[in-house]
Write a structure and sequence with these properties.
Length: 95
């Protein structure tokens, strides 16, 4: 990503089951936000094989070029974006 002019901020990697359960509750059982922020209790984050990243400068408001380049780089290194596909900052190892 640096060779493409981007600087990445790693937001989160390994999660505990308790944290995943709390995140899963957002938008469902508690209202930190109105909409859910994760779709599963069985996240790849629990094994440490996923990372949530964003642009160091603009966060999750990065432009399409940042997200397109992230997807290209992730694929190059044996990773994928998402699932779900709309979660463009979630990078996980392919098995
Ligand atoms: Zn994630």
């Amino acid at each position: 990503m640096r060779s493409k002019g981007h600087h990445i901020r790693v937001v989160e990697t390994l999660r505990t089951a308790d944290r995943q359960k709390w995140l899963y509750g957002i938008g469902r059982t508690h209202r930190l936000k109105d909409k859910p922020v994760t779709w599963t209790l069985n996240s790849i984050h629990l094994t440490g094989n996923a990372a949530d990243v964003c642009c160091e400068r603009t966060g999750y408001n990065a432009g399409d070029k940042f997200w397109d380049d992230l997807k290209t780089c992730a694929t190059l290194y044996g990773c994928e974006i998402g699932p779900p596909p709309w979660d463009r900052g979630h990078v996980q190892l392919l098995y």
